[in-house]
Amino acid sequence: MSSHLSPPNEPKIAELIEGRALSAVFQPIVDFGGGTILGYEGLIRGPAGTFLESPGALFAQAAREGLSVELEHAASAACVAAFAELGCEGKLFLNFSAEAIATLGRTREHAADWLGRQGMPIERIVLELTEQCAIDNMAGFEPIVAALRETGAQFALDDYGTANASMNLWVRLQPDVVKIDRFFIDDIAKDPLKFEAVRAMQHFAGASGARLVAEGIEKEADLIVVRDMGISFGQGYFFGRPQARAPRAVSDAAKEALGAGHIAVFPGARRSAIPGSPSGGMAAAKMLVQAPALDRSASNNDVLDLFNRLSALHALAVVEQGEPVALINRRSFMDRYALPYHRELFGKRPCMLFANASPVIIEKSMTVEQMAKLLASDDQRYLADGFVITDQGKYLGLGTGESLVRAVTEVRIEAARYANPLTFLPGNIPISSHIARLVEHHVEFHACYVDLNHFKPFNDRYGYWQGDEVLKFSAAVLAQACDPTRDFLGHVGGDDFLILFQSEDWRERASSAIAAFNSGALRFYADEDREAGGIHGEDRRGNPSFFGFVTMAIGCVRVKPAPESRARYGSEEIASVAALAKHRAKQEASGFYLIDIDEGAAVLHQHDNASPTPRAAMALD
């Protein structure tokens, strides 16, 4: 028998409805603020122990029998009856397809009559529009939803982000509640794209006035991220599976997780383009030089005339039917024409004679990273000739080699503030942002500044390529020492890293990182240098010196939340004390040093009063 068909002895859907053989189960929807239950989603089950027990099989059979809408209405009635019998508080969320909602009536009176017959105060009912099927007649569906809401019932959009639950529906139906599909919530603590997708939903929810419910929460780490993003409600196995006897309170384990003292480390994407930086069309627009172009049928005299009239024009594009086919460099052209008799000999000849028929062409929409590849190409003529900028293949204007180098450099400098291009770890701006979040949430943490001893002599001896390998190794060691859900790892620049520990065993983690790096770094040395115990080189003053192996030093600052601390410190003060701790750690045989934020701030204050020289600190902006 085919798997999609029910066994012949199973009851028909009409019989189940008539015999009231459907049973209800309830899953709590939790308010993160107080750890209380906002309400429950009512779900239906068929007769226990039968093929139709699962809702999937039940509704599939109803579809085959043409009784889908009747089953939905019977399911809602069963949920309301069981809910009332249990005496549960809060809202009851009921699932409906668009077709089932459409049968509730097009007027407020019809909708109120149906809802009133359910035996529950209308204002406690939330109707969830499921994603099962598309809405064929949206213009006719909107007044039905409006009529339902006029009765006092609320309207929710279920499983948002999948199937038919789209932005279009959100805009047109303006739901009171939007339930984010579990796909976006599962592993959101690890997935930067899911995080950004939910963040976008948050922005729109703020604009539309809808409340968000995060569905499918099964892991504590995902819950902490969702909580710290500012989403107020959640549902999932972490709070409880659907069951016939609805729980009246959140479990102790769930309450403990909701009240966890640490804040989430938001997942960070590797950034190839930074918000607000010139990329794509913005970069092209900055480089664009508005310049006339000549048709390929033009003569060299026409080129000379334009260059004489427009003295600032560095080059001239040649086009055919609006598309660039060549580029004429001003200096090269004028140098040729300065030769005896060249104007007389070549003036009336076609302009293509002295043109570069393979110019560099940059499309307006090209990303900065694509533009950057030109800098490493073998063809460097763009430095002198410049290049042509097009819009969908049509000539737009010109750019210079200087403007290209400047645009790429500016974007890469800006990008490094967000993510280090070597290790892809967060840069100074995300570091400062996370410190600010820790301080604002009054969380105790340890800011650990990591530096490598004798790294410069190693770089001088083995070269930057090998030095980069050491930096990547140190980043891997530090990442291994961190709990990604609690500890934030950033790369300030060069051989400087910063860890913002919230893990209770942070000291053991820091010590293990030092030990792992110090032993692992030996493999980057040649055999003779390992045997000698180090390398010969020059110190910063140019004097011959012998340097031991590259080792790791970690200076830690204990930051207590105000008012436990004498003052509330910002990222700059914390960074300055961390830099002080790092300097002291480099003098310790263990490579480790711990200082309290108040003590470190007092030391720096004394230093500032005693010396006109500014304190040495890590720049985070």
Description:
The chain is of the alpha/beta class. It has three domains: 25-37 and 94-258, TIM Barrel (Alpha-Beta Barrel); 281-411, Roll (CBS-domain); 421-610, Reverse transcriptase/Diguanylate cyclase domain (Alpha-Beta Plaits, 2-Layer Sandwich). The protein contains 25 helices and 21 strands. It has an eight-stranded mixed beta barrel with strand order 1-2-3-4-5-6-7-8, surrounded by four helices. Strands 16-17-15-20-21 form a five-stranded mixed beta sheet, sandwiched between helices. A three-stranded mixed beta sheet has the order 9-10-11. Helix 13 links the parallel strand 9 (293-295) and strand 10 (315-320). Helix 5 (108-116) packs across helix 6, helix 21 (464-481) packs antiparallel against helix 22 and helix 24 (571-585) packs across helix 25 (597-610). The longest helix has 19 residues, at 68-86. Mean pLDDT is 86; it is low at 269-278 and 612-621. InterPro entries: CBS_dom_sf (IPR046342), Cyclic-di-GMP_PDE-like (IPR050706), EAL_dom (IPR001633), EAL_sf (IPR035919), GGDEF_dom (IPR000160), Nucleotide_cyclase (IPR029787), Rev_trsase/Diguanyl_cyclase (IPR043128).
Structural class assignment: alpha/beta
- CATH superfamily caption of the largest domain: Reverse transcriptase/Diguanylate cyclase domain
Strand content: 15-25%
CATH topology of the largest domain: Alpha-Beta Plaits
Q: How are strands sequenced across the largest beta sheet?
A: 1-2-3-4-5-6-7-8
From the spread of the alpha carbons, the general shape counts as: flat
Number of strands: 21
Q: Main sheet, how many strands, which sense, barrel? A: 8 strands, mixed, barrel
Mean pLDDT: 86
Number of domains: 3
- The radius of gyration computed from the alpha-carbon positions, rounded to a whole number of angstroms, is 34 Å
Annotated CATH architecture of the largest domain:
2-Layer Sandwich
> How many individual helices?
25
Unreliable stretches (pLDDT < 50, length at least 5) are 269-278, 612-621
Distance between the termini: 68 Å
| CATH level 1 class label of the largest domain | Alpha Beta
What is the helix fraction of residues, given as a range? 40-55%
